[in-house]
Amino acid sequence: MSKTILEIAVFSVQAALEAIEAGAHRIEFCENPLEGGTTPSYGSLATLSMLTDKPVFPIIRPRGGDFLYTENEFNSMKSDVLLARKLNYSGIVLGILNSDGTIDTDRTKRLVDLAMPMEVTFHRAFDRCKDPLHALEEVIKTGCKRILTSGQVPNAADNLPLLKKLVQQAGDRIIIMPGSGVRANNIKEIITQTGSIELHSSARKTVPSKMLYFKATMQEALQSTGVDTAEIKKMLELIKK
Length: 241
Fold this sequence. Notes:
Elements lengths: L4 E6 L2 H10 L3 E4 L12 H10 L4 E3 L12 H16 L4 E4 L10 H11 L3 E4 L9 H11 L3 E4 L10 H11 L4 E4 L8 H8 L3 E4 L2 E4 L16 E4 L1 H12 L1
Parallel strand pairs: 1-2, 1-8, 2-3, 4-5, 5-6, 6-7
Antiparallel strand pairs: 9-10
């Protein structure tokens, strides 16, 4: 029986290191949580690459919003793929759609080929596509290793039937990795009901500022996004059982 993998999405170098220390099997490395995650800066990528040899997959996403990219944005993605490869990351996360809600197989495959030998995960752009079962076949053709999906609803636990159908259709051709809203209170049910062998969670928590002085007139808390290491450990305990 395959070992169940828990991937944790993080939004800073510090959060990545804390998630790894808590036992996360793999990290999805992003910045800008309010945008849903965008490509980390060069400085962040270079720094984290020197601090761990655990599997870390930076997201290749030039901006928030939709997944329909201009040629300039695509060129930016190509440059970021090459940077991740140069820094010896073991994988990347990306997703590109056409305006009609289908997978942009041509440009996705070009990025997959450019990324080799890194693994490529097709992210939740998949949840915005028109026909998930057809899109699954299209993503397989691009050479991606896995698909991160919530079952085309905000929380993965709310559409387990579709996730199960995707897992069954995928077989051993590609990994279907449920993500979004995955927590200790539902991770076992998601595994049991879908047959997934990889799960994705942000285990997100708000981290208060350590500043001793705050400018009251700015009316801000200056909080940041971190990871709940206790939640990560709880999920890992559950998937071992």
